[in-house]
Automatic annotation (TrEMBL):
Pfam families: Trp_repressor (PF01371). Gene3D superfamilies: TrpR-like. This is TrpR YerC/YecD. GO terms for molecular function: DNA-binding transcription factor activity; sequence-specific DNA binding. NCBIfam families: yecD_yerC. InterPro entries: Trp_repress (IPR000831), Trp_repressor/repl_initiator (IPR010921), TrpR-like_sf (IPR038116), YecD_YerC (IPR013368). PANTHER family: LMO1763 PROTEIN, TRPR-LIKE PROTEIN YERC_YECD. It comes from the Bacteria.
Length: 98
């Protein structure tokens, strides 16, 4: 039972995010939009995804990020069965590094 996140409000949020031009602007915007804990949770999930792609164990990931095994499992499910959003971003980040 999937929730439909495609709403006008979400569209507007994504349009706002696409307007950001620098990391500093991201900090300014996201510190207003998210609580510190929400932002830290998002960044933790991203770090977990990165480490899962690097074939790190759940124990290694948990020790480094502080993520619970439930969070690691949820991120792993997204990597395996999701929409390939993480992969798209990782590939673009890799291309920009080169």
């Amino acid at each position: 039972m999937s929730k439909n996140i495609h709403t006008d409000a979400v569209d507007q949020l994504f349009e706002a995010i696409l307007c950001l031009k620098s990391k500093e602007e991201c900090y300014t915007f996201f510190e207003d939009v998210c609580t510190i804990n929400e932002l830290l949770s998002l960044s933790q999930r991203f770090e977990v995804a990165k480490m899962l792609r690097e074939k790190k164990t759940y124990l290694e990931i948990s020790e480094k990020t502080g993520a619970s095994t439930a969070t690691i499992s949820r991120v792993n499910r997204s990597l395996t069965y999701g929409n390939d959003g993480y992969e798209m971003v990782f590939q673009r980040m890799k291309s920009e590094e080169e």
